[in-house]
Amino acid sequence: MEWKLDRTSKEPLFRQIARSFEKRIQSGELPPGAPLPPERKLAEELGVNRSTITAAYEELRASGLTQSVQGSGTCVSDHLWGVSPRRLPNWHQYTNGGSFLPTLPLSKRIREASADPRVINLARGQLSSDLFPEEALSDLLKSTPLTASLSYPDPKGDEIFRHTLSAHLQKHYGIEAAPEEILVVSGAQQALHLLTQCILSPGDAVAIEGPSYAYSLPLFISAGLRLFRIPLDEQGLLPDEVMSLYQKHKIRMVFANPTYQNPTGTTLSLARRKRLLQICEELRIPIVEDDAYGSLTLHGSQAPPPALMKLNQGGGSVIYLGSLSKTAAPGLRIGWVAGPRSVIERLADAKQQMDFGTSIVVQRLVESYLSSGQWERHLQRIRKELTIRRDVMLQALDQYVGDQVKWNMPEGSYHIWCRLRNAIPDREVLETGIQNRVLFLPGEIYGAERGYIRLTYAGVSESEIEEGITRFERTLQTVKNSAQI
Ligand SMILES: Cc1ncc(COP(=O)(O)O)c(C=O)c1O
């Protein structure tokens, strides 16, 4: 290489050296992984101080063009294959920053496999499209007037819609919440995000069910929260564990999904609900009750105990989350938070900063859907259909994998939580399933120990359920055979 250091230039020598390497890297002359000369040797060659070379290399490293490898000096960064000769921002460095942690590789793998239409998807936590109220919503969309205005919405939510939600909560859950105590959000997930940003701080300890709703975990971790698990049995979480977690870790909040818990399907008994409330009141810590599935009782099962929010009426210890994602369609992105007025005000203020409020068009549409009684009729239909699908899945499990798997009998909602008799590593069972073209969720996603999986019957037809479970049986057989080789 021919060095042309211009000692008369105002540009410092180290920057001239860095720029020269930059050109060679971007032109492809120095490919990814190529070593740069050792600092001492280059300093001698150029007749400059070693510190000048150190500064030049530091500049290259900071721009992401080079990396240091322990024991081998500096080389061109590995991720620069196909790099454009233009001076682009170092997107690699940018995209590895930010406050949201990237999705875990296991979740990415599941997302990728979900896109394959040949795969029977027993992982997706939503209704199949034939169970979405598409026709009713399309008709309402045509007839719903957008009279008020299409200006920025009230960040708390449209007033008429909040009145309807107040009546909805009263009628279906016995919950008394005035319109001012309700916030409309873009799904329960946004409510969780707002809560982590507004009422918690990095380092705070939160008690969650173990295992817990999968998408709450990365959100909480990204917010810098410390998570502690409350063990569960068939009657839901063990409330007294909250007390011992509090003593050890100074818990600041309990997050629970007491009815038809995702993923275990368990429902917290009335006695435990009362005990949990008693403990949290004593410790003066709030409970966030996620009730995404509460109205999905399957036929032949008793209604669940009242929501914690109802049991705590007037007590002010519970923040209640609801959503239309599981009983209508997740694409609507409509959920709500009911809680103490001060909390709702704080969350609404943050929502204003975050997105200026949920789309007024969707709020009006959903308002008509709820107030016309169509949601209730739809709920009857999906509860019936979900009962059929659950029974088909239970029957197929019994027939094909009864000797290898244990499961619970869900009384509501979408999922069956299974324990494999042989605790196969999650990665292995997932990959073998994908090879056999069936997808399910391994327990690791929920923070469970090895040997658990969640199967969902809501998103597939009866015939797909049956075929899916035969593929699941083949998966377990393949894993067993390869272990014996
Ligand atoms: C327990 C639980 N809470 C919240 C959500 C998120 O719901 P939404 O679509 O309303 O954001 C889900 C979705 O799977 C869930 O299972």
TrEMBL record:
Domain HTH gntR-type: 11-79
PROSITE patterns in the record: HTH_GNTR (PS50949)
Domain of life from the UniProt record: Bacteria
Family: In the C-terminal section; belongs to the class-I pyridoxal-phosphate-dependent aminotransferase family.
CDD domains linked: AAT_like, WHTH_GntR
Name of the protein described by the UniProt record: PLP-dependent aminotransferase family protein
Keywords: Aminotransferase, DNA-binding, Pyridoxal phosphate, Transcription, Transcription regulation, Transferase
GO MF annotation: an example: transaminase activity
InterPro entries tied to this protein: Aminotransferase_I/II_large, HTH_trans_reg/aminotransferase, PyrdxlP-dep_Trfase, PyrdxlP-dep_Trfase_major, PyrdxlP-dep_Trfase_small, Tscrpt_reg_HTH_GntR, WH-like_DNA-bd_sf, WH_DNA-bd_sf
Cofactor(s) annotated in UniProt: pyridoxal 5'-phosphate
